[in-house]
Structure formats: structure tokens, C-alpha cells
Amino acid sequence: MNYIPLYRKWRSQNFAEIVGQSSIVQTLQNAIKNGRVANAYLFSGPRGTGKTSTARIFAKALNCAKGPAPEPCGTCDQCVKIKNGHAVDVIEIDAASNRGIDEIRDLREKVRYSPVEGKYKVYIIDEVHMLTSEAFNALLKTLEEPPMHVVFILATTEVQKVPVTIASRCQRLDFKRLTGPEVIAQLKKIAQAEGIKLEDDAASLIARNSEGSMRDAISLLDQMVSLSGKSVGHDDVILVLGTAGADTVFEFGEKLGKGDSKALMDLIGKMSDEGRSIPQVTREILLHLRNLLFVKLGNESVIEESTEHINKLKAQSGSFDQAQLKGMMRMLSKAEVDMKWHPQTRLLLEIAVMEAVSMISEPSVSVKPAQKEKAVEQTIKQTYTPAPQPKAVVAAGFPDLKAKWDNILAEVKKKNAFAYISLHEGEPVSMTDGDLTLRFKKGFAFHKTRLEESASKKIVEEVLTAEMGRPVRINCVIEAETKPHEASASKAVEIFNGTLIS
Question: Which residue of 7, 257, 380, 476 sits 20 to 30 Å from the alpha carbon of 350, by its own alpha carbon?
């Protein structure tokens, strides 16, 4: 088994090979040139952006036989040992698995000894934010008075978790997410060297899904080669990732612009049947809407897509206005967050898309100042004019509501499908003085929130008022929020057809 994964094979071995971090490379090289090497550095940034690789290259540059040098030779005994992880003067510590005070105390004992082979003793502590408070306190003493022959490099993906006392004693360098073009260029370079035929669309899709992580992108390319051999196409990447793909997303945007609910539901069903990842599809639709919005704003420079793709976005953006796009993005963003805990991801996407369609059927209208004044005046009149009371004289009680519940659901369904779906998941548990309490199970907070939104709430309360012959207001609670004595009282009211006084 001599196979080496691509991400390890193509790990940067010198400063020139580091992708997308030119300012950091220049800072470290100038520090060596000018003899201003700090005793401690804090490398922060997202995963897969080169923090550990840069730390190793910096250690090479400091201990190179021709150095300290701005660029390590890569061939001397020290460079080779550091590359292979055999250098006794370069110590790597994984703080995720060595996070206790004992490990840091051991470090404090050994740090005072001079380097054995090189010029510097370099400690690279990866995921340093995982250290315990006691371990950080022990490390702090060493960072305050470090020996001149020691350089600490602390790497982290969550710099906010590193105590200020530690961070303030380090020179902080922030690694940025790599851009799409940077990732694509590196993927093509690797593909060419490895004899892999990589389609441009496939490289773009891999880069987009890596979210700025070069390691993730290279690992995905490696996975694609395992699946499809030395020829990697766009459809292969879609198959592995479970994504929608650009053509499907544009088709989605076209049907959304027309407000074609049936076609959209059919498309979601088709993607689900094909095994596409619904959360991933939702993220792609969100990104598409975001790109359409930026096209309308004239801010195309932030869209990391081809000229042909941007031209297609321009053509489709005419089907929407800015308010619609922002509203639909909010709906889909909420659905994506809810998908992390809700088992029915397809249902959440369908609900969000149906709400988005309702925005298309009711386009926003720009209001002139004079019209705005009249609209405000009308709103004030509507707000302070008493609503007409229901014609019914006999006020029905909670048992009557329970008997009419199916009919209430049917009436709400006629008016609004989303309000019906959420109301259907609630259970009426009590009604006191026109206040109806609806109880939702713990896993259905999404429907509680949806029903509390003004539009849905208004529809439900109108139907309830019409059916019960008196004003009815709804109060939504989660199962755990209903106290035992309240549940018992509600049950008694239901059994004895009574009214709860206190």
C-alpha cells in the first residue's frame, strides 16, 4: 500500500507553493531577512487554508542548512527531516488530543534545552483553542519569558476561543479563505501533473463546494478519480455531492420567476427521487438567489462564476425585483437552518418555495411620496377603526371547537396551505375567554414559529372567529412549556364543558 492521498502529495513544501496567502508569506520572509523573528506566532483561519503547512515551511526556513533563509532549500538534512516529521527540533502537538496541563508542563520542562541539530527549536501546536484553561495558564508562563532559541507557532480555526492573554503575546497572522479562481487554478495544475482530465465545469463545482478550503477541494478531486478514473466530468461531481447542478438551479429560477408552484414541486420531487441532498440543493438555490441579487445591484465582481454564467444570471434577474429576492433568501435561509434538526428536509424546502411563490404572485410596488402619505393615512384609519363583530350570537365552548376542528382545518387550508400545515401539527388543549392554546411537540417548533407570524396567525384567527361565533385568539406553546397542573385543568374543562376561571 504505497498510495499517497493527493492532499498529502501536493502539500506545499516551500513558500512559493503556498496558495492565496501572499501577505502572510511576505511577512514571514521579511522577518527572516531582517532578523526580526518573533518568539510566538498565532496562525488563525478556516480549515484547509495552509496554516500547518506554512508553519512547517517556516520551521524549515529557520533551520535550513543555508539559513535562516527566506526560502528553504528543501534538500538539506534538516529540510528533509522536517518534511518527513523526523526532526527532533520541530515538535508538533495536536491540542485536540493533548489538551491537558501535563502535556504543557512537559513542554515547559523541555523548552529550556537548546536545539540538538538545528538553529531553532520550533513548537507547532495545532488547534490550540482546544487546550484546557489550566493548560493555557501553564503555557502563558512560557510565552511570557521564552528562551531565545524557541519559536512557538499556535494554529487555530477558532481564534475567538484563544484567551486574550495568550493572543496578546503572539504575532497574529490571519489566513483567508481561498477564492474560487485560486482553488480552480491549483486543481487544474494538480490534474495536469497527475494525468487527470478535469472538465472546467467540474473544477468550478468542486471549488464552489470546498468553500475556500484547498484541502477539501483536493480531497474531493481524489474521491472523484476513485469513482470515475482519470476523467472527471461535471455530472460525476453532481453524483458524488448530491448537488443540483447549474442547469437545474437555473431551471428552478425560471419556474420560480413564473410562480409555477406545480412545476417547482415536481422539480423538488425529481431531485429527491434522484438522491440529491436537499440541504445541499437548498444552499445552491440560496447562492443562486444571492447572485441574482448582486447582478441587479450591479455588483457582479463578487460573483465567482464564468462570463457565460453571469450573462445567464442577468437574463434571469429580470423576473424578480430586489425585495422579492431578499424575501426569498430569508425564507430559504430559515429553512436551511431548520433542516439541521427537522427530519423532513424536503417538506421544509417545499414550504419555503411555496412561500417564495406567494411573493412572486404579489410583486412589490414602488410607492411615490404622495401615494405613501395616502397609504399611511389609510393604515391609520384601518388600525383605529373597530373591526366589525361577528354576527353569531351564541358563543361556542371548547368541546364545540374540538368537534369543529376538522372543518376549521379545511377552511384554513382553502385560504393558505402553509398556515394549514402548521395548524395541523398543533393540538388544541384549552380555550379560556377566547384565548385558544395550541400545543406543539418538541420537534415541531418550526410550525409554532410559522403560525405565530402575523400573516398565518391572522388567517387562522379569522377562521376560528367565524366558526366559533366570537373573537378567538391563538396562543402557541411547545409541549414542555405546558405545566402539569395546566394540562390537568385543560382536561377538566374539556370533560365537564366548563370555563377555567383561575
Answer: 476
